[in-house]
Design brief:
The complex is a heterodimer of chains A (497) and B (515). Chain A is mainly α and 497 residues long. Helix content of chain A is 75%, strand content 3%. In chain A, strands 1-2 form a two-stranded antiparallel ribbon. In chain A, strand 1 and strand 2 form a beta hairpin. Chain B has 21 helices and 3 strands. In chain B, helix 6 crosses helix 9 and helix 9 packs across helix 12. Chain B starts with a strand and ends with a helix.
Chain lengths: 497, 515
């Protein structure tokens, strides 16, 4: 390997960020008062975020090499090292995960009133797992973190979720597990074929025979496509998102779905380039299907959370569409779409969660008139709605624009269908906004709804800020990934337009 | 290098010092019976039993540290790392079983001090199985192990279920032993020896591909061992016996005798039949695939936790067999790692079931787990970890075990077996998770205190700590298993010139014994 950029002053920053929440969850264990548990969790997540922010400033944008790398021998018998590091793609997700988890603690402040300690412990373990996936440079470590998420997420949905939570939790777990065990086989085969290493950087140097690559691609596809989720493996998603508590939905939409797409970027593209190029067309077709079908199904939903959940299927279709065009615009569009979707859909789930806390109803029919009853909510929700439909000047626009243009460049039909998805998106989001905010209010809403308090406004404001900042200055985010995306395209061996 | 230890005088007692741990255990068992007569408090007997195990453990490992591997007593007994690895497991199983039994026996009102003596004797039998260099010694060890466990299973004399289980285990145990013995006899007929090493060297010279005279004994041995490890289709006894036996004995059965049989299988097949793998690999494959699938699927339908864990242990036997199929030191290492981890998590899971057995509460049905998380959060977290470990989800040790065997079979070129394995892991996830769902997502029925005790808590703490630590840092276990097999390859073609006459005599003796 070429010399990687080492962490400044030798401080194991990534290890610290990854394991701080896990250690923090241990601190929660002896605490008795629910109040203390909440404050302690908030402190831990904020500390993690503060640790993670310098990554953005210290990051060297000019190189595609992994940065802040730490390597330690771990399981020599299997040639497994503890290796972490970030490049221009993962740095963004580490920070996003750290940020969203602060908001998760804040939004769960009042919403979670039973088994408070268990909840925050699960949430913090989740954070370690999520950040761990993004910083892992070793497939074994990657898999470890990937699966570590299952247990806390299963409990988050199953214990603190909605009425149908057990069904949703089991469905989530079985779908994800079925996908990831096939990935495990893929990892082991890769281990044998790659000469006994599981280091992602070393494996990227090895060119496996195309036949083997195709098999491996299917094995990894099983895991990643379930997580993204790609059509037609998305059916766990509406149930899980809908039944999960607000924080769970935010994690699912904000981070978990991104892991699937991140897996494609980190493993399938660089390690299995021949298979990837061979399978572009089916991948693109499935992506477009997800965009259009997802948006169409979203239109028919009567449940607020379910509606937003289905919209995720459509939005994640843009991500995979961008990735599998294998062009600079597509990849960068896809990645920034992932970030934006994390912010916007996370924010939408937060909004819905906040209002659900008051009404205890997810039925759209029960709502209305929030513009008068809760004007602050209406304003913030309006911003996120506009962001979700890809309004120019707000963040989602740039991602969708890049992806659609790369789709047109690949084959016009992809671009056209993606635009259909955007149009449907405008329809369902505006219609939702009308039904929730603008039309006359029902009795139930009148009795229960009151406007946002300071905590709720505060937790949404950072996201509003990001929506606008990325919207007017997308270069801030894109500049991180240029070098890494360029290198990735070199690895796939595609012509850069 | 393993050397045959026949000293200048040809004394058949040369090298008996390698048996000191076994002798300590047998001696301790005899002492326990005496102690039981002298002392009213059965706890004293139990702790004396633990002390005996610990003494054997310490001597065993001093021996392993100081002495080179050796074949002693005219090839009857093999002292090596492989055997010692399994013996460590047996000591731990025995100690943990005693710890789990203390309170349980009081709840069940079983006041026999012999209980502990029988446990030690059974453990001694398992140790002979792990170290057997001769099929006859293997058989004797197996009999010592199973005869003791028949009594242990039926020790709740007034319980019908317990009696039924004992009878069932006895009949099927005798049946399977007959198969095994038949196999041994046929091997003797084919090769003129019952020593595993000699069988190997004779087969290396004489066996032709697809030799039916070798296949026949192999089939008999596979059937016999198949019963002992409870691999499908020879698993029928397991659920009934596991359900009826006192729960600590169920835990013991699901780990001790099963692992002992694996230790024997490993040595017999990868040493004795090393040169004819085509004869047994496919048979074992059938066993493995059937065990994994039947165990995982039938466990779905169970409402009794002990039955569920019985089927789960059938499935786990299938996973461990994958290591044997992979073959070679690598495959064996993975099998050993898998069994060690399986033992730990199974003992832990049973410890929780034992804690649920209270005065007036059977604590064996799944519904007894309802809402456990609310009333007993710590116990629930432990059970959660055991369940996820049994599924094989990281960062628990269960994942390390699965990774080890899957890596071994894939390296050996049997990727489809690994795929079958992972698919059924997902199926098995469903029933393990049901316990988690009941604990965490239902409201509790009763909030009665659990029947915990310090020894039981120690077992829980030890197993859960081991599962987590080995889950994130498995190197010590992997290295230990690997180093236990150093010299395994060289040891294979090892014609040992022991006098044939003596074996013959023992063999005849055996027939007198079995008649």
């Amino acid at each position: 390997m070429e010399a990687d950029v080492v962490a400044p002053a030798g401080f194991p920053i990534l290890t610290a960020i990854t394991f701080l929440p896990l250690l923090g969850s241990l601190v929660l264990l002896p605490l008795k008062s629910e109040h203390h548990i909440r404050w302690a969790s908030l402190a831990i997540t904020i500390a993690t975020l503060i640790l993670a922010l310098p990554l953005l400033t210290d990051f060297d944008k000019s190189t595609h090499h992994m940065q802040f790398v730490e390597t330690h021998s771990w399981i020599p018998a299997w040639g497994v090292d503890y290796a972490v590091g970030i490049d221009g793609i993962s740095v963004l997700f580490v920070v996003l995960a750290a940020l969203l988890n602060v908001l998760n603690v804040a939004v769960s402040w009042r919403a979670i009133d039973r088994r408070v300690k268990d909840f925050f412990v699960a949430l913090l373990i989740m954070e370690t797992a999520m950040i761990g996936v993004f910083v892992s440079l070793n497939l074994f470590l990657f898999y470890l973190f990937w699966e570590l998420m299952l247990i806390p997420m299963f409990l988050l949905i199953g214990v603190w979720g909605g009425p149908n939570r057990v069904y949703a939790a089991v469905k989530f777990l079985l779908f994800t597990l079925a996908g990831s065990v096939l990935m495990l086989i893929g990892i082991i085969v890769l281990f044998q074929a790659g000469g006994g290493t599981l280091d992602l950087r070393a494996l990227a140097e090895i060119r496996l025979p195309t036949g083997l690559q195709l098999w491996l691609f299917f094995a990894f596809y099983a895991a990643f496509a379930v997580k993204v989720p790609m059509f037609p493996l998305h059916t766990w998603l509406p149930d899980a998102h809908t039944e999960a508590p607000t924080a769970g939905s935010v994690i699912l939409a904000g981070i978990l779905l991104k892991m699937g797409a991140y897996g494609f970027l980190r493993i399938c593209l660089p390690l299995l380039p021949n298979a990837t190029r061979r399978l572009i067309v089916p991948m693109l077709v499935l992506s477009v299907a997800a965009i259009v079908y997802g948006a169409y199904v979203t239109l028919t939903q009567t449940d607020v959370k379910r509606l937003i959940a289905y919209s995720s299927v459509s939005h994640m279709g843009f991500v995979t569409l961008g990735i599998f065009t294998l062009s600079t615009a597509g990849l960068e569009g896809g990645i920034i779409q992932m970030i934006n979707h994390g912010i916007v859909t996370g924010a939408l789930f937060l909004c819905v969660g906040i209002i659900y806390e008051r009404t205890h109803s997810r039925e759209i029919e029960d709502y209305g008139g929030l513009s008068r009853l809760a004007p602050r909510f209406a304003a913030l929700f309006g911003v996120f709605t506009l962001a979700a439909i890809g309004m120019p000047g707000l963040n989602t626009f740039i991602g969708e624009f890049l992806v659609i243009s790369s789709g047109f460049a690949t084959r016009p039909i992809y671009g056209v269908l993606a635009i259909v998805g955007v149009l449907l998106g405008v329809t369902y989001m505006c219609w939702l906004f009308y039904r929730l905010v603008l039309r006359e209010a029902g009795a139930r809403v009148h009795e229960t709804v009151f406007d946002l308090n300071a905590r709720e406004v505060l937790l949404l404001l950072p996201l509003v800020f990001l929506v606008i900042l990325i919207g007017v200055q997308p270069g801030l985010v894109l500049s991180y990934m240029h070098a890494s995306v360029g290198h990735l395209l070199d690895q796939v061996g595609a012509a850069v337009p | 290098m393993i050397e045959s230890m026949v000293d200048a005088n040809g004394s058949m007692w040369a090298g008996v010092e390698y048996l000191v741990p076994e002798l300590i255990l047998v001696g301790a068992a005899s002492l326990l019976i005496l102690l039981d007569l002298l002392c009213r408090k059965k706890e004293v007997v139990a702790f004396a039993g633990i002390a005996g195990c610990l003494a054997a453990l310490v001597t065993g490992f001093t021996l392993l540290g100081s002495a080179a591997p050796a074949v002693v007593l005219n090839g009857m007994f093999v002292f090596d790392g492989y055997g010692s690895f399994f013996k460590l497991l047996f000591y731990l199983t025995c100690i943990m079983t005693i710890c789990m039994s203390l309170r349980y026996l009081r709840v069940e009102r079983v006041g026999f001090g012999e209980y502990y003596a029988l446990l030690l004797l059974s453990t001694a039998g398992m140790m002979f199985m792990a170290s057997a260099g001769d099929l006859i010694v293997l058989f004797l060890g197996l009999e010592l192990m199973t005869l003791s466990s028949y009594v242990l299973i039926g020790i709740r004399r007034d319980s019908l279920r317990s009696n039924e289980a004992a009878i069932k285990y006895f009949l099927l145990g005798g049946f399977s032993t007959a198969f095994l013995l038949y196999g041994v006899a046929l091997i003797y007929g084919r090769t003129g020896t019952t020593q595993i090493n000699e069988v190997a060297s004779i087969l290396a010279l004489e066996a032709e591909p697809g030799d039916l005279t070798v296949l026949l004994p192999v089939v008999f041995l596979v059937v016999g061992f198949g019963y002992k490890i409870a691999a499908a289709p020879f698993h029928m006894w397991a659920p009934d016996v596991y359900e009826g036996a006192p729960t600590p004995i169920t835990a013991f059965l699901s780990v001790g005798p099963k692992v002992a049989a694996f230790a024997a299988v490993g040595r017999v097949f990868t040493v004795g039949f090393d040169t004819v793998p085509e004869l047994w690999t496919r048979l074992i494959m059938v066993l493995a695939v059937l065990s994994i699938s039947v165990g995982s699927i039938l466990a779905l339908a169970q409402t009794n936790v002990k039955r569920m864990l019985a089927y789960s242990s059938i499935a786990h036997a299938g996973f461990a067999l994958l290591g044997l199929i992979a073959g070679g030191p690598g495959g064996l290492t993975s099998m050993m790692v898998y069994l060690a981890i399986y033992g730990l998590m199974n003992l832990g899971a049973f410890a929780v079931v034992i804690a649920l057995r209270r005065e007036g509460v059977q604590g064996e049905t799944l519904s007894d787990f309802e809402g456990l998380a609310k009333a007993h959060p710590v116990t629930s977290v432990l059970m959660l970890i055991f369940m996820f470990s049994l599924v094989g989800i990281p960062p628990t040790a269960g994942f390390v075990g699965k990774f080890a065997v899957f890596a071994a079979v894939i390296r050996a070129g049997y990727t489809p077996l690994a795929v079958i394995g992972v698919v059924f892991s997902v199926v098995s996830a469903f029933f393990y998770l049901r316990v988690v769902i009941l604990m965490y997502m239902r409201e509790p029925e009763s909030e009665e205190p659990l029947s915990t005790s310090l020894p039981l808590n120690l077992v829980l703490a030890a197993t859960v700590a081991a599962i987590i630590v080995l889950g994130v840092y498995p190197s010590p276990l992997l290295d230990f298993a690997q180093s236990a097999l150093t010299g395994w390859e060289q040891a294979l073609p090892q014609p040992v010139g022991g006098p044939l006459q003596e074996n013959y005599g023992l063999f005849e003796l055996l027939f007198i014994y079995s008649n």
